[in-house]
Amino acid sequence: MPERDGYLPGVPCWVDTTQPDPDAAAAFYHKLFGWETENMMPPGSGGNYLVARVHGGDVAAISSPPDRDQGQATWNTYIWVDSADETAAKVRAAGGTVTAEPFDVPGAGRMAVCADPEGASFSVWQAGQHRGARVVNQHGALNFNGLTTRDVDRAKSFYGAVFGWTALSIPSGSFWTLPGYGDYLEKLTPGIRAMTAEFGVPGFEDVVAAITPIAAGDTATSAEWTVTFATDDTDATAEQAARLGGKVVVPPADGPFVRLAVLRDPQGATFTVNKFVAENKPPA
Predict the structure, then answer these.
(1) 232 within some domain
(2) What's the rounded Cα separation, in Å, for the pair 88 and 131?
(3) Is the residue at 220 inside a domain?
(4) Looking at 93, 127, 161, which one is the last position of a domain?
(5) Which of 32, 241, 246, 245 is nearest to 139 (CA)?
């Protein structure tokens, strides 16, 4: 897939992880995915924003906690927008909250931190020089984002109002779609529409994220945005994560079109890895 240079408004475009010890996290992900990192914060700033690269292209970042907060590490999802200010207003109007008002990131863009009505946190990104993830769907690069939610209907109303998303349900699960996204991808990767039709999932080319309903009675799972990275070998990546001090939360297993595992890094940030497996077709 060609290197990305921007995204359509309403498409997840970037992820970063907030870590109590960014340097230790960088060492873990370097050994796990081969990430090479560069600190983008000026000397003497007292913080870190380590941009991670694969084959020279930006894939993610590792940051210090805000205000020296040493809470649990998390992964954060950013969604591309034309205007962070206008989107923040839409979030409020749709029943969400703006937890960090729109602000400029010098030389990079403008952003706001928001939460949906259930409290699932996400950021919106109005791009300047920073154009989101440049490399996707390769080993160690962003592959997918997803929302876990207790109230799918309320989520549909909220995200439809804020980003124009609709929902698609197919045998392999439920997904957020952005009308017209498939046309954009077809220009980047000609033949993608034909490929999704061949796999029996027409309309999947418009998918921008997954929807995972939280089972009734499950009080341990929180509404949140999740991140998935591509891997060349799911089993080997899970084994390596454990050797490096991480945890295998869900062991490698086959799913529709993928083999996946849920992992947790040594400081507590949870993420998924998967490998595309064309033979793992869902039931008709």
Answers:
(1) yes
(2) 20
(3) yes
(4) 127
(5) 32
